[in-house]
Design brief:
Layout (H helix, E strand, L loop, with lengths): L1 H58 L2 H5 L4 H26 L8 H40 L8 H40 L1
Length: about 190
């Protein structure tokens, strides 16, 4: 009788162990699918950057006809766009090379933490260093060099400030969307352990 109870207990333990293993596999798969979905939020910031660069490169040749901006400013703007696109490529490259369905969690966490740090450094340190002189030059080039008689150059700067503010707000939205997605991936992995 005891042997029969022992055998029944062993079978129940085996069934329970099998169910726990299946549950762990399901949780792992769900986590990996969630990480893959959050990668789309990270890629949306990259795609916006590339889209803006392409749009600007299509518009820059119009300057040859309108002469709104000086040639040095137009060249500097093109170079600034190239620098931003290259930086975006290199910051996103490790994330793009991740395979969320196969890579181990330690690698994913390390790449996400590095991405988040680089993206934040770009926003808080590099962006002001690049954009402050560029906006000042844009105001000088557009407003002071081209100011009409009797028109206050500061009034001509309003479109630059409004456009810059709108662009900055859109950029911040996509920046935080990407950074929060990276942090969510890290948090999900920590909660899994």
């Amino acid at each position: 009788m005891e042997e029969k109870n022992f055998e029944e207990l062993r079978n129940q333990f085996a069934i329970l162990k099998d169910q726990l293993n299946k549950q762990e596999i399901v949780n792992d798969r769900l986590l990996r699918e969630t990480m893959k979905a959050k990668k789309r939020d990270i890629n949306s910031s990259k795609n916006l950057e590339y889209g803006c660069v392409l749009f600007c490169f299509f518009i820059l040749p119009l300057n040859w006809y309108t002469r709104t901006w000086s040639l040095p400013f137009t060249i500097a703007t093109a170079l600034l766009l190239i620098v931003c696109a290259v930086a975006t490529h290199f910051i996103h490259k490790p994330v793009d090379s991740l395979n969320f369905l196969k890579d181990d969690f330690a690698t994913v966490a390390r790449v996400m933490a590095k991405f988040k740090k680089q993206y934040d450094c770009w926003l808080y340190y590099v962006t002001p260093v690049l954009l402050t002189p560029w906006i000042a030059w844009a105001c000088y080039d557009f407003a002071w060099r081209r100011a009409l008689e009797g028109v206050n150059p500061w009034l001509m700067c309003i479109p630059i400030f409004v456009g810059g503010g709108i662009g900055f707000a859109i950029g911040l939205y996509y920046h935080f969307k990407a950074v929060n997605a990276a942090q969510d991936i890290i948090d999900d992995m920590e909660n899994m352990e």
